[in-house]
Amino acid sequence: MAAVMSLAPAGARTQPRPTLIVALGGASRERPAGTAAAFDLAINQGADFIESGIVATQDGALIARDDHELSVSTDIASRPEFAARRTAKTIDGSMKEGWFSEDFSLAELKRLNCVSQPIRPGQRSATTPGTGILTLREVMDIARAGCTREARVIGVCATLVRPNYFASIDLALEPRTADLIRINGYNWQAAAMIVRSRQAEPLKTIGGLTRARRGFLTGEDPGLILDFATIRSHSEIVCPPASALINLGGPTPVATQLVASAHAAGLAVQAQALPFGDPFPPKPFHRGDLRTWLAAVAAAGADAIATDTPAASGRDR
């Protein structure tokens, strides 16, 4: 049976508790995203949830990748046996070139190594142990093992990547994700399982197939006007950029009304604390002082914070 974890709006809780930490791709600033090495490090650093994007393979397996084009996040471009498989496709109206998950079997993709994406110009990618491609089932297994090892709840957060595109090529992500949720014991409202998407319809579909909680990714604009009633019709969690929770325009940062409004609509808030802009963290916070920024987001009322640097939450051992 999957672990239980509450992510209810603050007003619905009977007891206060710390803001949950969602590790995006695991500790993906320190290890290649979506790998066992990144997830295990994130759990060691105190993450409550491990998150990964989810895409499909040619034979219908779900793998932990933030994009279905694989040349940036794996060593596929250096594999001579796959050189002829490079192709160009029109995806959501734009032309993309590279190697795509849906053109390979799971067995073929299991031969690849994942690489860290360079953070600084000129930095070279590198592979490390524990950096093979994982299936969603394996991510769930890592979370379950982390629960046992740490004697606490570790949840799974699955982000559907381009669900409309995969549905158009008969590799729909929603029913496959729902099957794994049911098989692995996550098919109940209190289970430590979240399914996220930038699109409403896939979340509605998931809601008809499982009881797992759903998170709506709002986009990166902190000034975006959100219709919480509409979001509540297909999701239990709203996932805005962290900067939308704090008014940075005055001499002293103060909380906006976003969290209070979301809670009033019955939504929990998972703030996305990622470097959407430059500088990061935003002024008046200092570059490199991510821990202070995350503490400010938590103080603004976020129920959870999603970050690629879980150690900055201050929970690392």
Keywords:
single chain, TIM Barrel, 18% strand, eight-stranded parallel beta barrel, 317 residues, two-stranded antiparallel sheet, globular, alpha/beta
Mind explaining what this structure looks like?
The chain has 317 residues and is an alpha/beta fold. The chain has one domain (10-67, 133-313): TIM Barrel. Helices cover 24% and strands 18% of the residues. It is built from nine helices and 13 strands. The chain has helices at 36-44, 106-109, 136-150, 163-168, 173-183, 200-209, 228-232, 258-264, 290-299; strands spanning 20-24, 49-56, 62-64, 87-91, 94-98, 155-160, 193-197, 213-217, 237-239, 246-247, 254-255, 268-272, 304-307. An eight-stranded parallel β-barrel has the order 1-2-6-7-8-9-12-13, surrounded by six helices. It has a two-stranded antiparallel ribbon with strand order 4-5. Strands 10-11 form a two-stranded antiparallel ribbon. β1, α1 (36-44) and β2 (49-56) form a beta-alpha-beta unit. α1 runs parallel beside α3 (136-150) and α5 (173-183) runs parallel beside α6 (200-209). The chain is globular, with a radius of gyration of 19 Å. Mean pLDDT is 89; it is low at 119-126.
